[in-house]
Design goal:
Among the domains are: 57 residues, no CATH class; 110 residues. 27% of the residues lie in helices and 22% in strands. Helix 6 links the parallel strand 2 and strand 3. It is elongated. The N and C termini lie far apart (55 Å).
Length: 465
């Protein structure tokens, strides 16, 4: 067997590269500095590793809790890139973090949560100079509302790829983003009112970021506040690389944002609402979805109820991934969960007309589902005109069967007109479901559109008798 010490340098580098890739890029200090075990094997390995810092992504990590001061750690190694990470609820280790931030020309990643006014002032003061190597930046604050000055990072971030801002106002953000031409991911949530960025300004800036793939616009304190022009622009801005768009906000901002964008590569859209929607009227959202080709021809729809989070409506196309289009309602009143989904189902969104597999299920809920009105279940089912396979969890199956029974007569082919099979979890030979579904199955048989009843094995998702 060939001894590893006679392997050529290029082969060893491949092995070292595979080793360093095993550890998460955003891991803790131990993960980030796992490469150090290689340099202690022998002099040859040490020289080879330290001569290839970019190839092997060699970094040193500075935290608030480390025993060795940041200055001493940096002096013990060559001028490698630095990662600065801290969750600073108190001033413990503050001097270490400020010292590390002083090495701005070497810092590639900053991940700071700051929960005291004095700490925020000192940290932000230390970050008013250029950070030319910075690729990843996460700043969060949950107890205070700091404001980032326009001179942050010297007003430019040319290598920035990932930026997360939480609970911090940054009025100068649009200007900084214009310089971040390599940005791949942008997450903004919990932004205070003083950091408000209008939909039109946000779109204008994002349209210049040709590499942006993921955008998360989270719930913000300004969501109910400012007013923007109600008329849509004459021309939409193209976000050419955007693949994942997550909205965690209120209807007005969402509507004004999507009416201004075109996303030819989008294959994942997630929207979360925090309250029961009295009137789900989102014509611009509907137009945006219907004009996005990857969100139109979807295979599956999942309606799920969970007493811990509310209700969810989710569409999938299997070859694109598990969550292509998802609307989530965070609502504490269980009796409103179904009505929230029904409002969306009756909003003329194109995906309803292409889905062939419909799943209706619940998770961990103790609700008495028989209290749901049959008419509400029918309103949920009406838009799904292409569904061939209907999957029902055991708790919901009796109530839905009772609703289908009410469609017997003039509406027998109006509800789920091409339905072929109903799959029921834990299907029993007799019981409420069998009692309720009988008339519907018989009527569909007479109409020339027969329906089969089968068992849904949720574990394997196999369709079996």
């Amino acid at each position: 067997m060939k001894r590893i010490d006679v392997l050529p340098d290029d082969v060893l580098l491949e092995i070292f590269y595979s080793y360093t890739k095993m550890y998460p890029y955003n891991g803790d200090k131990t993960d980030i500095e796992a490469w150090q075990s290689l340099v202690h094997v022998c002099q040859r390995w040490r020289c080879l590793v330290l001569e290839s810092p970019r190839c092997l992504n060699l970094r040193l990590c500075c935290t608030q809790t480390q025993r060795t001061p940041a200055r001493d750690i940096q002096d013990a190694w060559p001028a490698l890139l630095l990662v600065v990470k801290a969750d600073m609820a108190i001033s413990l280790g503050m001097d270490n973090i400020i010292a590390a931030l002083g090495q701005s020309k070497r810092i590639c990643q900053v991940d700071l949560s700051i929960h005291a006014n004095r700490l925020s002032r000192e940290v932000l003061a230390a970050m008013q100079v250029p950070f030319p190597e910075l690729t990843d930046l996460q700043l969060g604050s949950y107890l205070i509302l700091p404001v980032i000055p326009d001179s942050f990072l010297g007003g430019s971030a040319p290598r920035l790829r990932h930026f997360t801002l939480s609970g911090i106002a940054f009025p100068g953000l649009p200007k900084l983003l214009l310089s971040a031409t390599h940005l791949v991911r942008l997450d903004l949530f919990g932004i205070p009112h003083s950091g408000y960025i209008s939909p039109e300004t946000m779109v204008a800036v994002l349209s210049t970021l040709s590499s942006l793939e993921t955008l998360f616009l989270g719930r913000s304190y300004y969501s109910h506040g400012r007013k923007s022009p109600s008329l849509p622009p004459l021309k939409r801005s193209i976000l050419p690389a955007l693949r994942r768009l997550h909205f965690d906000t209120f209807t007005k901002y969402l509507e004004e944002f999507v009416t201004r964008i075109d996303t030819p590569q989008l294959d994942e859209l997630n929207i979360r609402f925090y309250h029961q929607i009295v009137d789900f009227h989102c014509p611009q959202l509907a137009q945006f979805i219907n004009c996005t080709l990857t969100l139109r021809a979807l295979d599956e729809a999942h309606v799920e109820f969970d007493n811990t989070v509310g209700s969810t409506l989710q569409f999938r196309r299997l070859e694109l991934g598990p969550n292509n289009f998802r609307i989530h309602f965070l609502c504490r009143e269980p009796h409103l969960w179904l009505s929230s989904v029904v409002q969306v189902c009756n909003s003329s969104l194109h995906p309803f007309f292409t889905v062939e597999d419909l799943y209706i299920k619940r998770q961990y809920s103790q609700l008495i589902w028989k209290a749901i009105k049959n008419t509400l279940w029918l309103q949920l089912l009406l838009p799904f005109t292409a569904v061939k396979n209907l999957y029902l969890s055991k708790e919901l199956a009796p109530g839905i069967a009772a609703a289908l029974q009410e469609s017997v007569g003039d509406r027998i082919t109006e509800v789920l007109p091409v339905l072929q099979i109903i799959f029921v979890e834990a299907l029993e030979p007799s019981g409420r479901f069998q009692e309720n579904i009988g008339r519907f199955v018989a009527a569909r048989q007479l109409s020339g559109r027969p329906i089969a009843i089968s068992v849904w094995d949720k574990g394997s998702n196999m369709k079996s008798m």
